[in-house]
Specification:
Among the domains are: 1-102; 206-302, no CATH class. The termini are far apart. It has 16 helices and no strands. α9 (152-170) runs parallel beside α11 (199-216). The protein is mostly helical.
Length: 302
């Protein structure tokens, strides 16, 4: 198996079987790294799996240290290279999340914010209190630093917020603290994608915020953000995939609200958008369409 095939399969499997992916990383991944360009993508996956999914900080650090010692990592340009700096940030994030060390004082403000945001995301499903504290700290430092919109810290905050919100939406038995963090993280993602991304990331952040509010039980807020997602999509040409998920979001909200007419309209429009998708997109969107199509006794919900 070559590196790209391994990485693609690991990403495909990591959410449903993180321990197995961690085992494959330890057993196979390092031997597949043959060039500098492969170092950061592998480090990103390792940090994500051992951090956000497993909360196994020391194991993740051990892997990243082994990765940093490979000839391909050294070939990337030395201590100041992009790859070396990324590896150091990932390690600092795991140490901060695990309570092992706080190395942020060694970094420039923007990098410190990135490390803090990543550590918060690592803790989202493991320790809502610490995750919330770190997220708010990163936000306060970003505001105080007055960084330009193009600074990578803003993108890091957007990614961290989106990741936390999405993971917490799926968490069974979510606590009140986790629900609060879920919504706050989705709000952060929306705020910072508006600074760091394009209209596409911004409308997807509205989708995420709609789904988080829905999980939190606030249907008015959920509907508002689902509509904002749709409005932005329609203002940019109604791209089929984005149109589909905008209507899917609104239909899901209307179903939860017991609004049969609203659900039926959204279902019809989602079906229209699905018909315009490329075949590959149709395949992975089919489950979402079928879920939206599932029968609901709205009279029982009234």
């Amino acid at each position: 198996m070559d590196f790209d095939t391994f990485l693609d399969q690991a990403w495909a499997d990591h959410a449903t079987d993180s321990p197995a992916v961690a085992g494959r990383l330890n057993a196979q991944a390092l031997a597949l790294v043959g060039e500098a360009a492969q170092v950061v993508p592998l480090a990103h996956l390792a940090h994500h799996v051992w951090g956000e999914h497993l909360g196994r900080w020391q194991e993740g650090l051990q892997f990243l240290q082994q990765l940093a010692a490979l000839p391909a990592a050294a070939a990337g340009g030395g201590a100041d290279s992009t790859a070396t700096q990324a590896l150091r940030r990932y390690q600092a994030s795991l140490r901060l999340a695990g309570g092992l060390a706080d190395e942020r004082g060694q970094w420039a403000p923007g990098d410190g914010i990135r490390i803090t945001a990543m550590a918060a995301a690592n803790l989202g499903c493991h320790d809502a209190s610490r995750a919330t504290a770190l997220l708010e700290e990163a936000l306060a430092k970003a505001e105080a630093a007055a960084l330009p919109d193009q600074d990578p810290a803003h993108r890091a905050l957007a990614i961290a917020g989106n990741g936390m919100a999405g993971a917490l939406e799926e968490k069974a038995g979510r606590s009140a603290a986790e629900t609060s963090l879920m919504v706050r993280a989705a709000q952060v993602a929306r705020q910072y994608w508006a600074r760091a991304g394009t209209w596409l990331e911004t409308e997807r952040a509205d989708y995420r915020l709609a789904m988080s509010w829905l999980q939190a039980g606030d249907l008015a807020q959920a509907r508002q953000h689902a509509q904002a997602c749709l409005d932005r999509v329609q203002a940019h040409g109604s791209v089929a995939l984005e149109d589909f998920f905008g209507w899917e979001a609104l239909g899901t909200v209307e179903r939860a609200a017991g609004n049969a007419a609203g659900h039926a309209q959204a279902l019809a429009r989602a079906g229209d958008a699905w018909a315009r998708l490329e075949d590959g997109d149709k395949a992975w969107c089919r489950a979402s369409l079928e879920k939206l199509q599932a029968g609901v006794n709205f009279a029982a919900l009234a």
